[in-house]
Amino acid sequence: MNRPQSVDLIVTDAMVYCFDDENTFLPDGAIAVAGSRIVDVGPTDEILKAYQSSTVLDGQHFLAMPGLVNTHNHTPLTITRGMIEDLSFAPIYTKSIPQGHLLSASETLALARLGMYELLKAGCTTVVDFYRHPKMLAQAADEMGMRAVITGRIHDVDLDELASRNWVHRNEIGDATLQETCDLIDAWHGKSDGRIRCDVGAHGTDTCTPGLLRRVRELAEKQGGNVHIHLAHAKGEVNYVHERDGISPACLVEEVGLLNERLIAAHCVFLDEEDRKRVGRAGIGVAHAPHQNAPAGNSAPIRDLIAEGAHVSLCTDSRSADMFEAMRLAGGSWRMKNGGYEPKAKTLLDWAIGNGARQLGMQNEIGRIAKGYKADIIFLDRLMPNLTPIVDGYGILAYSASAGNVDTVIIDGRIRLRDKRPVGFDAHSVVSEAQTVSEKLWARYGYNPVTRS
Ligand SMILES: [Zn+2]
User: Fold this and answer.
1) Residue closest to 219 by CA, chosen among 181, 188, 165, 255
2) How far is the centre of ligand 1, averaged over its atoms, from the C-alpha of 321 (Å)?
3) Who wins on pLDDT, 355 or 91?
4) What residue spans of 316-368 are helical by DSSP H?
5) pTM for this structure?
């Protein structure tokens, strides 16, 4: 008889959702991990005959699934959470609140750490995060062991003017924000065994002139990966681009050569029929942000976009990082718009896992629990009352699970969250530093946080 193969980690006796082509479900499953990858998955008795490890996690109370993939986020914007929802659609268009371009690098880092910690706790193992001071985002993601696609926020609009809804473009701002992304790429692309990838991100069609968007395309052609953008996310954006360029935002993106399957466009709310066909034909990725859209009374035409050929993934766009909540909001907003009982639970889960992996070109690396895939696995505490009863398996996850059920997270083969506590960093200081930074920033705008009264 062959001796068992030594591996770095074995999880035993878990309920395993593989999310593979066969939708394999193992009621008593085990996962063997060596280095950053899954070497095997199967019934516990078979895995224990074939593998041995000095680290064995008892998964008896675990429901194991691939980590969630969040395709559009800005961790420093946690600064406006809990305030912006009652004020406006997006901080960048809102006067007299803390603006991203006013955050220092160290303030950005404190907020990025908060955002990354929240994502980790919520079972997100891969995130697209982009904002000003992008090196701070990469640093925060790296410290917490996240798999991350980081980019700067390229624009040439003057943000002080934009807060009052005046669009004033300045070449030097475009140069500086492009350079910031180039510097990020030099410093971080491919770092931490490839866990940190750097892409190119433009803020939007109204905040970039066509000339700058063409430079974004040139940089992205050199860099590879995806191009990230906000598209048709506000009526003001659509009106201004019509006024400035005489075309719609989707037409503009096409004209500058960015409308293709590499584009991940967040929101895609205000697209007319022609534009829905245009983006669908191009096979773009839509980062669906129901958390962001719903408080502003918006709902993206997801059913039509899919029918035309676009691909949908889910994101939280710096609101609550709970992707299970995003699934429910996505399902609910579709049904409010179209009626009926689509999309089903499994589709919502696919948007939050496999579709995101595919949009990022990582479908052969992440998004399933299978041999050879990266060990990005989350474990939910299935003894929680909201995860009972498990009948078809998927419905309970999409309609009842929450970020708070995530007990343990493995990313790239390493345990990053255990018993709901982070491994390798001090959660208390992350939260308290972010609160201190936030209080100081809001105080500049005359808000006296309740913690200080
Ligand atoms: Zn966004």
Assistant:
1) 181
2) 13
3) 355
4) 323-338, 345-352, 354-359
5) 0.97
C-alpha 384 – ligand 1 centre gap (Å): 32
Q: Classify the C-alpha dihedral 271-81-111-320 as positive or negative.
A: negative
- How many domains does the chain divide into? 2
In this structure, the answer to whether residues 163 and 260 fall within a common structural domain is yes
Cα of 108 vs centre of ligand 1, distance in Å, is: 16
Q: Compute the distance from residue 164 Cα to the ligand 1 centre, in Å.
A: 19
Tell me how far the alpha carbon of residue 295 lies from the centroid of ligand 1, in angstroms: 14
pLDDT tens digits along 85-144: 888 777 888 887 887 778 999 999 999 999 999 999 999 999 999 999 999 999 999 999
- 294 pLDDT tier (thresholds 50, 70, 90): confident
Q: What is the mean pLDDT of the chain?
A: 96
201 alpha carbon to ligand 1 midpoint, in Å?
11
193: left (phi over 0), alpha (psi -120 to 50) or beta: left
Q: Tokens representing 23?
A: 């939708």
- Domain that residue 28 falls in: 5-66+369-422
Q: Is the pLDDT of residue 174 over 80?
A: yes
> Where residue 47 sits, what CATH number does that domain have?
2.30.40.10
For residue 92, the CA-to-ligand 1 centroid distance in Å is 10
How much distance in Å is there from the Cα of 59 to the middle of ligand 1?
36
Q: How far is the CA of 267 from the centre of ligand 1 (A)?
A: 8
Shared domain check, 159 and 40: no
